[in-house]
What does this fold into?
Amino acid sequence: MIRAVLWDLDNTLLDFDVAEWEALSTDFREFGLGEFTKEMLQEYMVINRRRWQALERGEMEKQEVLEGRFREFFALLGMDTSIAAAFNDRYQVLLGETICFRDNSYELLAGYKGKILQCMASNGTKKAQTGKLGNSGFDKIFDLKFISEEIGAEKPSVDFFAPCFAEIDKWLKEHESDLPYSEGKYLGPIKQDEMIIIGDSLTSDILGGNNAGIKCCWYNPKGLPLDRDVRIDYEIKNLQEIKEILNL
It folds into this structure.
């Protein structure tokens, strides 16, 4: 039985690609940098992906990812690199202003409110994720919210998950007896196989779940090949398929 669900936010519950495009386009306009093009986006994404993967491997600090990607990107375009920090600060705010739900994710999670413990588990920044949670309404649905910036460690590190599990156990002690599946009882300390993480990233969400020893559900809407040596317990193409897995 699954007692706790850890949801990834970006490109799982929310369409990050849409928000990214809008945020970067607006940021370019506000900083007087001209039009942000699709070609620029592709160049930026290569830099951004490489730096986030370095962060996941523990090879780079978070702030160097966030600001360094724009310094590198602006240098590539022959632009002023000194604005990278300010550009990134504004970008974090803008990211939270465009909300695009995937697969009716809001209705899905709202339907599970009060039925099972739901947590957000994200590597995004506190500023961006706080904006997304408030503007999407997810802030009123999630029982617990885990942001790597607050924890001090990133998925897929076990150092991210350890404090999450402690908070999950504490929450269940206080509230599990109110959940319908519990029959009015706290069922004791949660076991690893009673938790599941649902996310789109093999290197962050799924590897993180592997490292933490919990169940893993890969959200793979594009039907991408499995190109990592990771354990996947479930694979879904639409978030609504999680209903068959949770069976509540």
